[in-house]
Amino acid sequence: GGCSCSGHCAWHASAHHGALASPQVLRLLVLSVSLENEGLSQRALEQLIDMLDAGAIGPVVVDTIMATMLPQLNDPKIPNRARNLLLRALHTLADEGQGIMEAMRPLAPTLAGWLSDREPSEAMLGVIATAFKDKKTALELREVPRRAIALLRARETRRWPHARRMQLLRLVQWSSVNNERAAELYAKSGVHTELLSEVAGAVSVPGQFSEPKSKWVEQLVNTIAALCFHSEKTREDCLKAGYVDRLLRIFTSQVNIRAGL
Fold first, then answer.
1. The Cα angle at residue 106 between residues 101 and 111, in degrees rounded to 5
2. CA dist., res. 77 & res. 37, Å (int)
3. Is 141 exposed, middle or buried (0-12, 13-18, 19+ CB in 10 A)?
4. Cβ(166)–Cβ(212) below 8 Å
5. Averaged pLDDT score across all residues of the chain
6. CA gap 30, 28 in Å, rounded
7. Based on the number of CB atoms within 10 Å of its own CB, is 72 exposed (0-12), middle (13-18) or buried (19 or more)?
8. What is the CA radius of gyration of the chain?
C-alpha cells in the first residue's frame, strides 16, 4: 500500500518511525548523544524524544535506550564530558517520558553510588533528581538524602554555579515529596532554615531579577514548599521566620517592576 501525498500524512509518519525504530538505528542515535560534533548530540536527543512519543514503538525505544546507555554510563574509561552528555540526555528523556523514568528503577543502586562522588556534576545531580520523581525509585534511594544534606552544607557547594546547585535543590525537592522519611530527615537537619536564608538574601537586593536569578529563586521556593509538604514543624518554622511575607515582597516587587515597563 501507499499514498499519493507529499509525505506528511499519518501513513508516512508511521512508516518513517517504523524504519527508524530498528535496534541498530536506535543504538546509533543513543551513542550519538555523547558526541559534540556540530550539535549532533542535540539532534539525536530530539529524534529520540520524537520517537518516545510515537505510540506503538515507544516501549522498543525505551528498552533500546536503556540497554545501550547503561553500559556506556558504567564504563570506567568513558570521558567525563561524554558521560555528562549521556546523563543530561537521560535526565531530559526521563522528564519527557514516563517509560524512561520507570525503566530507571533498577538503576537506583548505581545512582546512589554516583552521588558518593566528592563533587557530582550538574548532569549527574539532574538525573538523580529526576529519578526521585518516580515514587518507587524514591523509596529505593533511601540513602541519598543524607548525602544531599552533606553536599548542601559543604563549603565547596556554595561556590558551585546556580545551575548546578539548582539540580541539588531539585533532588531535595522530589525526594522530600516522594519519600516521607527523607522529608523527616531534612526537617530534623534544618535544611529549610538554610534555604530560608537564601530567600532572604534574594529579597534584600532591590531591583528586577535577572532570568537566572528568577529561576534560582523559583527553585528555592519550590524546594521549601516540598519540605513543608510532609512536615508540620517545617511549616511552622517557615511561618515564624516570616517566609510568607518574603514571598509577598518578591511577588509585589517583581510584578510592580514589570508593570512599569
1. 80
2. 20
3. buried
4. no
5. 83
6. 5
7. middle
8. 21
* 132 HSE (CA, 13 A, CB side): 30
- Residue 21: Cβ within 10 Å count: 17
Q: Is residue 196 within 8 Å of 241, Cβ to Cβ?
A: yes
Residue 196 CA to residue 206 CA, distance in Å, equals 18
Q: Which residue has the higher pLDDT, 256 or 104?
A: 104
pLDDT class for 186, splitting at 50, 70, 90?
A: very high
At 135 the pLDDT is 93
Rounded to whole angstroms, the Cα distance separating 226 from 114 reads 24
Please check the confidence at residue 133 and state whether its pLDDT lies above 50: yes
Residue 75's φ and ψ, nearest 5 degrees, are -75, 115
Q: What pLDDT digit, counting tens, does each position of 206-256 carry?
A: 677 788 888 888 999 999 999 999 999 999 999 998 888 888 877 777 765
- Written in H, E and C, the secondary structure of the chain is CCCCCCCCCHHHHHHHHHHHCCHHHHHHHHHHCCCCHHHHHHHHHHHHHHHHCCHHHHHHHHHHHHHHHHHHHHCCCCCHHHHHHHHHHHHHHHHHCHHHHHHCHHHHHHHHHHCCCCCCCHHHHHHHHHHCCCHHHHHHCCCHHHHHHHHHHCCHHHHCCHHHHHHHHHHHHHHHHHCHHHHHHHHHHCHHHHHHHHHHHHHHCCCCCCHHHHHHHHHHHHHHHHHHHCCHHHHHHHHHCCHHHHHHHHHHHHHHHHHCC
- What is the C-alpha separation between 223 and 209, in angstroms, rounded? 19
227 close to 195: Cβ distance less than 8 angstroms: yes
The predicted model scores a pTM of 0.82
Question: Could you tell me which residue, 5 or 24, shows the higher pLDDT?
Answer: 24
